[in-house]
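In this section we walk through a basic example: taking a raw amino acid sequence and producing a predicted 3D structure, encoded as discrete structure tokens. The instruction is simple. Fold the sequence below.
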Amino acid sequence: MNPKSLTDKQQIELVRFELKYCERCGRTCLRAAGDDSIYCRRCLPEVEELPEPRRGRNSATIANEPGRYEAGAELQGAIDGGVA
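The resulting token sequence is shown next.
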């Protein structure tokens, strides 16, 4: 249909989509542009049933605190290839 031949009652609605992968199963899917969903339709019901994550301190924050671990230098040496 030629857009110029559209009457006032007929309108074309454009919807933009983005290609997204599900962060649970890895399946690729389309979502409406601007939508911030991170799970596909199949995984969403299962994820909604999960308990809310605890909002405590994350392990990266704890691990980076100075003096938190006494064995820090030994572990760093082992990571760098040295003998602990």
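Looking at the output, two observations stand out. The CA atoms of residues 33 and 66 lie 43 Å apart. Residues 14-51 form one domain. In the next section we compare this with other chains.
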